[in-house]
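Consider this pair:
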Amino acid sequence: MSGHICFSVRENCENLLDSYGEICVRCNACGRFDESTKHQCHLDVLKRQLAEEESFRDWSDGMEELQRKNKAANIEYMKNKIKKVEEILAKEGERWI
């Protein structure tokens, strides 16, 4: 018999799309499990979510215009967030050189 242990999300959860703000999905984007890989994990999550947003094609009848507007805003937000996390990673890399 095996068990499954669930963690609630941390206050600083960076992966609300997957966790729904409830259950930790152990992505480590917040650094809960390994602070040293926090930013790389966050970047991986953002890039995967960006790809999902960009590939969305399941438009609802009568709502497509609004959905397209929302998806465009999500994509812009994620690209900006990715850029910020990449800048943090670049600075961290400079510290190790």
About this structure: The mean pLDDT is 91. DSSP finds three helices and no strands in the chain.
